[in-house]
Amino acid sequence: MDLRRRYTNGLQYGAEYTWSHSLGEQVGQSQYFNEDGPTVYDRRQVLTVNYLYAEPFFTKASVAEKALLAGWELSGITTFQGGLPFNVDLSTDPANVGTSPGSGIGDQAERPNVVAGLTYSPRNVQAYFNTAAFSAPNAGTFGDESYNTGRGPGIDLWQLNVAKNEAFEHVRVKFEGEFFNIFNHANFNGLGTTYGAATFGKITSALDPREIQFRLKFSF
Questions:
Q1: pTM higher than 0.90 for the full model?
Q2: How many Å is the Cα radius of gyration of the chain?
Q3: DSSP calls for 138-150
Q4: 42 within 8 A of 85, measured Cβ to Cβ
Q5: Least enclosed by CB within 10 Å: which of 15, 112, 205, 210?
Q6: What secondary structure does DSSP assign to 161-210, as a single string?
Q7: Residue 185: Cβ-neighbour burial (10 angstroms; 0-12, 13-18, 19+)
């Protein structure tokens, strides 16, 4: 879905929303052949909004008012994305089939049993999901966890640009302030999914925190 507003009275914006569902067939150990489920690219919802506002009110003001109030622009891109799916993998090889324990590769590593519904509580850095929902299978058996049943953290990202335009005879000057992740929202992108590992259920990495940069541009 796509929504756009053409530039009118200093304002334009656009919004794009995507709902998708990517399914694939699992290839791996004998128990997991022909098993369908969400692929690692299955990001269900994505909303992106872009906007630009150039204030139009002071173009005919006095010199002092124009110097302070005219020529300002605010623009930005806001992105909301759902999380990607994941498997919980084992750090051991109970089925004794020679997998790479703890490889984190969903179509190769063995999986645990599910003893309770996967819940995202308390949903913090130390415990993003309920790790007690899983248990190790008995020796010589595969676990019963389905393919890519978990869902990782999403993204909430705001990037803004504030600019001031000035013109001096044959010279145009533009001062800009760029704010990446302006609200300093923690966007996690790493998650411990290996059962039995010290990082199991924990957030292991995040995208960049807030960054601010300024620049001054002269055009002749």
A1: no
A2: 25
A3: PTT----PPTT-E
A4: yes
A5: 205
A6: EEEEEEEETTEEEEEEEEEETTT----EEEE--EETSTTTT-EEEE----
A7: middle
State how far the Cα of 207 lies from the Cα of 212, in Å rounded to an integer: 15
Amino acid (1-letter code) at residue 31: Q
Q: 48 forms bridges with which residues in the sheet?
A: 16, 79
User: Could you give the residue ranges of the DSSP H alpha helices within the chain?
Assistant: 63-69
Q: 65 φ, ψ to 5°?
A: -65, -40
- Most distant CA pair in the chain, distance: 84
First to last CA, the chain: 41
What are the tokens at 188?
A: 């996690």
CA 170 to chain centre: 44
Tokens of 219: 């055009």
Residues 6+ apart with CB under 8 A from 97: 29, 30, 110
Structure tokens at 64: 């002092």
What is the number of other CB atoms lying within 10 angstroms of the CB of residue 71?
Answer: 20
Residue pair 56/69 in contact by the 8 Å Cβ criterion: no
Per-residue pLDDT tens digits of the chain, which is 220 residues long: 788 878 788 899 999 999 998 887 766 555 666 677 888 888 999 999 999 998 877 667 676 666 677 788 999 999 999 999 998 988 888 888 776 554 444 446 788 999 988 888 778 899 999 999 999 999 988 888 888 889 999 999 999 999 998 877 788 888 999 999 999 999 998 999 999 899 999 999 999 999 999 999 888 8
Give domain limits for the chain: 2-219
